[in-house]
Design brief:
Elements (H helix, E strand, L loop, with lengths): L23 H4 L5 E5 L5 E5 L18 H5 L25
Antiparallel strand pairs: 1-2
Length: about 100
């Protein structure tokens, strides 16, 4: 468990990470923004960015799976152990 900053009590958001290959033609048809509802009826706009898996090692993504993704030899290489070390306030800092 980590202490996520912000006014809303944890957990504020569940992050799911999927590994898949999308061709440039299909990617051009996908959304580039996502909208999160805010208290009071407003929305926060998030920008969707598609990146190469080899560029994930140093990204502040949660769960911190970037180094495991970047270490794959190819985008379709099998992942034999998807378990990650426990995430705590001692080893992860929200940005």
């Amino acid at each position: 468990m980590v202490t996520r900053p912000g006014a809303t009590a944890p957990p504020r958001k569940l992050h799911l990470i999927y590994r898949l290959h999308i061709t440039p033609r299909i990617r051009a048809c996908l959304a580039t923004e996502e909208y999160d509802e805010l208290e009071g009826g407003g929305q926060e706009i998030g920008h969707v960015e598609w990146i190469d898996y080899r560029e994930t090692a140093d990204l502040p993504i949660f769960p911190p799976i970037g180094p495991a993704l970047a270490a794959l030899p190819t985008p379709i290489a099998p992942q034999t152990d998807a378990a990650l070390p426990a995430v705590t306030d001692d080893n992860y800092v929200w940005v």
